[in-house]
Amino acid sequence: FTYTEPAKAPAPTLTSVSPSKALTTGGDLISVTGSNFVNGAKIYLNDTLLSASFVSNTTLRFRTPAWNLAEIVDVKVVNPDGGEAILVDGFTFEKPVINPPKITSVDPNTSLLTGGTLVYINGSDYKAGVKLYLNSTEVPVSLLS
């Protein structure tokens, strides 16, 4: 009796990641293209294992996780049989651009020293949790829109 080991499946290859960059906040849907992907293949960004969706033997998808740093990372696909492919520097995480708040008008722009005057501060790029200071004193605010 002679045992012949079955032929090993071809290792996966990686050709592209699209889009190739996303924000560190996570949640973007990314497609990985290549060949010889097998259902159950795993995707890693650097050493972080992600939840991957098998689409076909040439396409896998994943959602980006929240990432701590803006950096370029390697993309690795590992088939269940251990065959793997790495796309060095294949994906980029970028920090989101945060626009500072802009004040366009203050109404009224004067008040009595005793306080109690309702003041509207109009502008743009205000976010939930915005804080308002008059000199070094924080004053309560309500964000209207």
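The above is record 1. Record 2 follows with the same two-line structure.
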Amino acid sequence: MGRAFGRLAHMRHIVFYQLAPSEVNYWKGWVTNGLQNTVRRVLFKADVVGIPMGIGLAVYIWGNAKHQEYLRKNPKDFENEE
């Protein structure tokens, strides 16, 4: 007779995948694999990111120190004032 409900149309070249909700566990292995992979990736790129960041921090600290030095008043400029 007729086809069963859900299989009424015939489609070609379309593939459907479906996972059962019980098979999907988003947090499985998060502590063991996720944190280890994050640490590994950070350490792998530490030299690429850390060296320019360290240079930038050194220049920032030096610039702030130099700026504070320029803001100070010279005591010799005020010797003759009463």
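Residues 27 and 34 are 9 Å apart (CA to CA).
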